[in-house]
Amino acid sequence: MSATTAPSASTDACGAAADLSADDALPAESRDAAIGRLEQELGGVIGRIRASWRDAAAQVHPDLQPLGYQVLVAIASGKATSATAIVDRLQTDKSAVSRHVRQLEDLGLVESRPDADDRRARVLAATDTARERLALARRRYQTRMGERLTHWSVDDLGRVADLLRDLAR
User: Fold this and answer.
1) In terms of C-beta density within 10 A (0-12 exposed, 13-18 middle, 19 or more buried), how is residue 67 classed?
2) Burial class (CB in 10 A: 0-12, 13-18, 19+), 164
3) Are 11 and 17 in contact (CB under 8 A)?
4) Residues facing 19 on adjacent strands
5) Are 97 and 86 in contact (CB under 8 A)?
6) What is the largest CA-CA distance in the chain?
7) N or C: which end of the chain has fewer CB within 10 A?
8) Are the C-beta atoms of 82 and 123 separated by less than 8 Å?
């Protein structure tokens, strides 16, 4: 809590006292304006992330689209090794994932193998070439992020990460 905000007491639905900052008691217009500003700033962050994905995709292969890059990252991380898992992870259309997987195979960045547990299913795996190119793109991205965040404290980085996690729920 900052020095300019003072706690105020309120009662929750169970009758227990709860501490609220002065910000929690803002008029609806001020809260709506703050939410609008947050939405606008998140839009800017999302735009910058999309640009980073576009740049990283081009570093991996000049013909790779940003969604294809995200599909490749999901496969390479081992967190999504089937088309269905990729659709679930990226919350995108199955036909788009299929197109990108096919392109990644054509580019030599992904291989499709029989699933050891279920021979009817296929497992997607990133090739060594893909892993090398992803590592290079990731290093470049981390360098740029590190330069932008060099003046942020570890505590501030943790707080922002926690707030974004809570927002994403």
Assistant:
1) middle
2) exposed
3) yes
4) 9
5) yes
6) 64
7) C
8) yes
Query: Whole-angstrom Cα distance, residue 118 to residue 136?
Result: 34
Residue 26 and residue 139: Cα distance in Å, rounded? 43
Decide: 80 and 95 in contact? Cβ < 8 Å.
no
CA 2 to chain centre: 30
pLDDT 10s digits, 71-117: 999 999 998 888 999 999 999 999 999 999 999 999 999 999 888 88
Give the chain's radius of gyration (CA, Å). Answer: 22
DSSP 66-113: HHHHHHHHHHHHTS--SHHHHHHHHT--HHHHHHHHHHHHHTTSEEEE
* Token pair 């927002």 in the structure block, residue: 167
Q: What is the pTM of this model?
A: 0.73
103: its two tokens: 């392109």
